[in-house]
Amino acid sequence: MRFVLNGTSTIVDAHPMARLLDVLRQDCGLTGTKEGCGEGECGACTVLVNGEAVCSCLIPVGQVESADVVTIEGLGDDHPLQHHFMNEVGAQCGICTPGMIMAALSLGPSPTLADVRTALAGNLCRCTGYSAIYRAVMKWRETQNASGPAPASAAR
Amino acid sequence: MRTAISALEVRSVPSLAEALAILRDDPRTPIAGATDLYVALNFGTLEPRRFLDIWSLNELREIAMDGSKLVIGALATYTSLIRSPLVASRLPMLGDAARQIGGVQIQNRGTLGGNIANGSPAGDSLPVLAAVDAVVVLRSADAERRVPITKFYTGYRATVMRPNELIVAIEVEPVEGRQWFRKVGTRAAQAISKIVVAGVRAPVPRIAFGSVAPTVVRVPETERALAEGRTIDEAADVLSREITPIDDLRSTAEYRMCVATNLLRRFWMDTG
Predict the structure, then answer these.
(1) Does residue B164 share a domain with residue B184?
(2) DSSP designation for A34
């Protein structure tokens, strides 16, 4: 089956009921996406499918046929939000970080702190106490708004 | 241990007509957003082995009016319920419920039809649907029938659905009276409900609870007590005899009973 992975058309030979998470990590070798709880509560496995944040541990890969999938690797290593996470110490052990960042990417423009908390309610972090994460996301959005309109796809 | 993927078999279809033909000739478990089924898969408790993937049936995603009825396609996600102006104006408490189901990731994938078909007594949308006497539209290759949600469940996770049927839509007649929804869980987002309640404040109030019985329940005796003008204390007494909460891993019967009667009082105060 074929889908677009981080902007590149990709063909994988996988069982349609295989979890998207396993296909990404094992077939595609993209281990940035983490597995946490396996029940849709922790958000560690969050990726974007057609721009929407989803838990890749709960998705049969057959359902992303022809879809646009973006993982943490799709950001490169120099995305402004990644820098804000580093600067604000929004990452400690790092397991939740890729999922946090992917979930934050689907936020609309000019989010309030309440918007950020809602967008990240599906992502658990056991290290930071969340404040540093919210700060990183808020600063990212503020600098982005200050430097002109956001690009059409926040992920690129 | 996680269920072995190699043991599973799935067919996917481009249209509802083909989905219904498959269910007629070769019944199998429908799978949509997978937010319940894949939790079972991850925990190794998934029982079905053969599936019909209906996620791509966009014809089941529409939220629209049919005359005076609000019609919600079975594959409408919680996110689409939250964003729908029709839901906001006609059935705002369904939007309230949708906002409290899981995180954004689950809201983007979980569907109203899935919440009904899964039939958990803790399903957060179910008290809302029961309180407004929503109707579940079931379609097979040969027929369509309408079952009130209050008659849809026959026991714990048991329904009147036949193997050749698919939930295609949920219909809601106009609701008179103030709507009220409250979910009590361990935390605001994510947690599965310890108790959930939806109410409509009308001359004859309509009140439904989740997580207090094997299925979602209306509480007709409590409703009657309130309609007859009995005090809220008396109604709370009636309620405590009408529901049968249990101890489980999320809460205790005693806690649920206490919270259920408190929620009834709060509903009455907030909507009075």
Answers:
(1) no
(2) P
Residue A85: inside a domain: yes
Tell me: pLDDT of A155 over 50: no
Residues 98-157 of B with CB under 8 A from A: 102-106, 108-109
- The pLDDT, as a whole number, for residue B190 is 65
Domain hosting residue A53, numbered range: 2-74
Q: Which of the pair, B190 or A45, is modelled with greater confidence?
A: A45
Instruction: Output the DSSP codes for A64-110.
Output: GTT-EEE-GGGGTT--HHHHHHHHTT--SS-SSHHHHHHHHHT--SS
Two structure tokens written together for A49? 């499918």
Reported as a pLDDT band with limits 50, 70 and 90, residue A108 is confident
Q: Residues A128-134: what's their mean pLDDT? A: 96
Domain extent, residue B216, equals 178-271
Sequence letter at residue A128:
T
Query: By the 8 A CB rule, do B197 and B219 touch?
Result: no
Q: In chain A, whose CA is at the least distance from the CA of B102?
A: A122
User: How would you class A72 by CB atoms within 10 Å of its CB: exposed for 0-12, middle for 13-18, buried for 19 or more?
Assistant: buried
Residues of B in Cβ contact (< 8 Å) with A15:
5-6, 8
